[in-house]
Amino acid sequence: MRTPTQTWPDDLAQSYRDKGYWKDETFGEWLERLARSFGPRTALVAGDTRLTYDELLAEAQAIAGGLLASGLNTGERVLVQLPNSARFLPVVLGVLYAGLLPVYALPAHREREILHLAQGSQARAYVVAARHEGFDYAPLARQALADCPDLVTAYIDGEAEGLVPLSRLRDAAPLRAPAQVDPASVAFLQISGGTTGFPKLIPRTHNDYIYSFEASAPICGLTQESALLIALPAAHNFPMSSPGYFGALSVGAKVVMSLSPAPDACFPLIGAERITHTGLVPPLALLWMQAAAKTKHDLSSLEVLGVGGAKFTPEAAARVRPTLGCKLQQVFGMGEGLVNYTRLDDPEEIVIGTQGRPISPDDEILLLREDGTPVAEGEPGVLHTRGPYTIRAYYNAPEANRRAFIEGGYYCTGDIVRLRPGGYLEVQGRAGDHINRAGEKVSAEEIEDHLLAHEAVFDAVVVAVEDRFLGERSCAFVVLEDGAEVKPPALKAFIRARGIAAFKVPDQIVFIDALETTAVGKTDRRKLRAQLKEKHFA
Ligand code: OOB
Question: Which Gene3D superfamilies match (predicted)?
Fold first, then answer.
């Protein structure tokens, strides 16, 4: 079944095949090929679990067999919400092997996001952890089952009333051959950072995604001898494919999962597993650099630190080698596709001062002024892109598609970028209205809507404010109803109780008397955000 989505024009698709980017191989076939090539080598280390490539395939086959025996049909969606545990990769690979589509949720997601993801993807099954970072997922899973008519089963990595233990999937016979699906069809759905009220779903195909991480592996210097530490939440595109665990597995390297990105969890793993590569968002890179000065753990195996998800300042970038003793690789990517890397042999000035250049010679870059005309050489503009692994449309979102894609199928990233000689991109800012909070994208509009739901709130405007540690933090300007009273902690607690990921709760709340609506029309939220930010934080 081909999941409905707009796709690449036939002539381009053909040229991507002719050039060897698209290999017409499915994830299931890819996994079999890995087991054939690297069978007895270590594929995965997570906690006490160590799996070879052969064992990883067997695990995936067991899970795939169980899922299909439960009545799921090829092409149906499975919501996966797991931390970086030993289960994550076997489950995701099992879902893919069965020809089902994983829908990736973050462990931080709560009722709102989970219901939105499950309903938006019409997920039939949900695989969830029992506990992570003190949160009990069982009530969340029971609620999803109650509220989502398409959802028939929730599997829990443990035991809880009303939910099926994940281990039960092993009762069925393993699936011995990967499901036959079209390699040009959608393989999985990922959540977008998004600037609109609710995150959109990003459909990635087998062909485009496998190309993106297989082409990334050599750019990042991964070989069979490498060991990649996954410190960021595994459901994010960055740790998944830039080069990510998929890129590492594609060359026979070892993937090591950490449940936490904190230095005290990761540094011992680096020493014990002789980690050569890892990827971090800028705030974590800062934290690691600070902690490295005092650590007793041996970090000498580290060769490459990838940093991306948000802008890494040149000052911080320059400190990577002196503090961590490894090369820096800047990574500027997006779940929608395009990924740029500085190259490992680039001069220092490029590595520190740019966000890299695209993976593919066929990634097309178009920088436009606000009026839609192309910029002059060297002038900054809004980055638009298309290519062999950049989506042509969001999943079932005609209205969002009209805004996010322009003629010729270019995706409007919303990033303001300057193009340097050699095709290197320098990210200078952003046109869209979201907060890039330590790499997590938070939609201003989504949070404004939650604030407006409080009875004491007359109006609210959420803006991104520069933050020394987070890169950006969220600040909510709130106008209260006449005579109403509420304190910031109570308002934050109200937002949290609405069932959203904790990283979306405003970091700061500023009460103001009125929104200045004289200069701009009341409905122009974007101008209002800019005006308030200018007045309070310039
Ligand atoms: C990654 O993916 P998303 O989808 O969470 O966010 C994409 C957005 C970009 O449009 C840009 O605004 C920002 O995140 N971003 C950066 C950046 N890397 C991402 N801004 C400045 N400098 C960078 N290095 O964040 C993502 C996906 C794959 C690889 C790496 C990051």
Answer: 3.30.300.30, 3.40.50.980, Luciferase, Domain 3
